[in-house]
Design a protein that fits this description.
The protein has 13 helices and 27 strands. The protein is about 25% helix and about 25% strand.
């Protein structure tokens, strides 16, 4: 695929934000304290009448060309003063954070309104260390906000503010001009407030006993379109090539049918119920969650991350634990655009023990397969098939999908036979394109002599529906085409085998941590996927909070597979029948709902889901009200339906 928009400067900003500095040693920045993870972290010492100091997401701007994206923040309507205490032990610290005004605050102003000036101040033990004046101007609301975008102003710039243990942080906001808006309605404050500890560490070397770890995620890759699953087309020759030397998990089940929750599970080893990354309203990967990158970094790994998916970005805190991280900001990009930076990073760190996370997205829309793969598969698009035709077809079907509980049953009424056939072929060619890019990575590792001391994990984050149940795209359901993904693990110390029993993909993160001599401690039920078949889970859980169920286009659907059955449950709907049950042994494509025939099994499996949710409820990070840029990003990349 080719992106219509390449944004290089924000990528550099993301790298800088993650702390990459060329040096003979590793500069490691670790968050010691998240100052916004609890209301108990701060004391309000002054505020305006009727104003409420609270934690939420603030967004100064939707424009990706400025540093104005979503940040967990302490809302401090002017005039407000708040104090926080720096822990007495564990320093010295660097305070990171920013001051800003949410874009919604300017909406009540008219074009004739005078700008409102707001003063932001930071004091440490009574000494002023930061001051910024920002002007709130008339704005056209969220959609027009990028015409004159506001921006976060970083405390202490790129260096942050140095602190010692036991000091007192004082934050203030004050009005410098008269305001036609009641102060309590001005959403402004300080965002991203954390205390970091910065250390300099030696690089370590990789060996077969202490190997490099390469974790490749292929976005939107369904298992049954790969050669690992016996697909008749040669879509994944490189994946097939390495499968002979790998553990192949034949029934790997993703934790979700879309990217944010599934990827957060890879990186934390946790189910969505525990990490809380479910929707744009809860899309921030909390600092309190230990990630695979953080765990390996502590064990001496140099860490680098490269993503072709704009959702898996530093802007949503997916970069925590990475010394260098690159991701696009507005659109999915091809492997051709991601691999050069990734390969340069490998060349630079090939003598060091490293952890590489590579998130490719070639099978995701917009479907733009590599010409060489089209030629190899013998595919040619219909002459009248439009650019971005998959998305156009998806839009054409959407209204019917909203009206039909089980999708469109006669898609040929909407699309021609030739176009329907091409939707399948184009997706297959994009799968082959992703596999081609995987092959280029494998070739580089081999050329550099790294294969003998590198463990490689490969997994799809979720699949793609191709009218299997009357729809296109993903996230809407939990059927096999969306949650069953390819997964394998290979490298020194890994015994090749095929694992036929069901496996949750979230355990891959915990397994890689163990291979690196670390542990994801919050993943209290972790399974070592490098062990044999009998240690697989007896029940596997999954969910989507962007589901469609009957007349409910946006609802939560919970799922579990157990003892040959698969249950889908939409507890928030008002439908008479809010459960569906499938025998995925006799009916692997889940075409026949047998819930009415097996009521006892329905209740047993609903109880499994409730027990699972209760087990993790206490571990869920404090969710904050979502930010506008996250919602806008979902719309921009094709995840419709998150306007609220």
């Amino acid at each position: 695929m080719k992106s219509t928009l390449k944004i290089c400067v924000p990528l550099c900003l993301f790298i800088a934000a993650c702390g990459y500095t060329p040096t003979s040693k590793r500069i490691v920045r670790v968050v010691h304290t998240d100052l916004l993870d609890s209301d108990e972290r701060y004391e309000v010492t002054r505020t305006s009448p009727g104003a409420e100091v609270r934690r939420m997401i603030l967004t100064p701007s939707l424009s990706v060309f400025v540093d104005g994206g979503d940040l967990p923040s302490l809302v401090m309507p002017p005039s407000t003063e708040v104090q926080m205490r720096v822990p007495s032990a564990g320093g010295p610290f660097v305070l990171r954070g920013a001051a800003g005004i949410d874009l919604k605050s300017g909406k009540p102003l008219t074009k004739d309104s005078e700008p409102i000036s707001i003063l932001f101040e930071l004091e440490i033990d009574g000494e002023r260390r930061f001051e910024s004046q920002q002007r709130l101007k008339p704005r056209a609301g969220i959609k027009g906000a990028s015409d004159d975008p506001l921006s976060w102003v970083r405390l202490g710039g790129s260096d942050g503010v140095e602190l010692s243990g036991g000091e007192t942080i004082t934050l203030r906001t004050d009005l410098l001009t008269s305001s036609s808006i009641p102060p309590r309605e001005i959403l402004c404050g300080f965002g991203g407030l954390v205390l970091e500890v910065v250390t300099e560490r030696e690089h370590l070397s990789a060996t077969p006993e202490t190997p490099n770890i390469v974790f490749v995620v292929m976005d939107t890759l369904r298992a049954d379109r790969t050669n690992l699953d016996g697909y008749e087309l040669d879509t994944t020759p490189n994946l097939a090539r390495i499968s002979e030397e790998a553990i192949v998990y034949e029934n790997a089940i993703s934790t979700s049918s879309w990217t944010w929750p599934a990827t957060a599970s890879f990186l934390t080893g946790l189910p969505p119920e525990a990490h809380g990354v479910l929707l744009h309203r809860s899309s921030w990967l909390a600092h309190s969650l230990e990630t695979l990158a953080e765990a390996l970094q502590e064990r001496g790994y140099t860490t680098g991350g490269f993503s072709a998916n704009p959702l898996v970005s530093a802007d949503k805190n997916f970069a925590q634990g990475f010394e260098e991280y690159q991701a696009p900001t507005t659109a999915f990009v091809s492997g051709d655009e991601v691999l050069p930076g990734c390969f340069e990073w490998i060349e630079r760190n090939k003598e060091h023990r490293f952890f590489l996370y590579l998130h490719l997205a070639d099978p995701h829309v917009p479907h733009e397969p590599h010409p060489d793969e089209l030629a190899r598969l013998g595919f040619e698009a219909p002459a009248d098939f439009p650019p971005r035709g998959f998305e156009i077809a998806h839009t054409a079907l959407r209204q019917q999908l909203l009206l039909k509980p089980f999708g469109v049953t006669r898609p040929e009424k909407v699309l021609s036979k030739e176009h329907l056939e091409w939707l399948d072929k184009e997706y297959d060619a994009c799968v082959a394109t992703g596999d081609r890019n995987l092959g280029l990575l494998l070739d580089l590792l081999k050329e550099e002599g790294l294969m003998e001391k590198t463990v490689i994990a490969f997994v799809g984050d979720h699949g793609e529906e191709l009218l299997d149940h009357g729809g296109l795209d993903h996230a809407r359901t939990l059927h096999p085409e969306l949650i069953r993904v390819p997964m394998l693990l290979m490298g020194p110390g890994i015994t090749p085998m095929k694992i036929s029993s069901q496996t949750s993909t979230r355990h891959l993160g915990s397994t890689l941590a163990k291979i690196g001599g670390a542990e994801l401690s919050a993943a209290k039920d972790a399974i070592d996927l490098s062990q044999r078949d009998h240690e697989r889970a007896s029940a596997v859980f999954f969910r989507t909070d962007k589901g469609g169920w009957g007349s409910h286009p946006k609802t939560t659907i919970l799922g579990v597979r157990s003892e040959g059955l698969s249950l889908h449950w939409a507890p928030q709907t008002e439908e008479d029948q809010n459960v569906r049950l499938y025998d995925h042994i006799k009916d692997p494509q889940e075409m026949k709902d047998i819930a009415a025939l097996r009521p006892l099994e329905v209740e047993r499996m609903k109880a499994l889901i409730l027990t699972h949710q209760g087990r993790w409820a206490a571990d869920l990070p404090n969710a904050l009200e979502g930010g506008a840029r996250a919602a806008e990003m979902l719309r921009a990349v094709g995840y419709a339906g998150d306007e609220e």
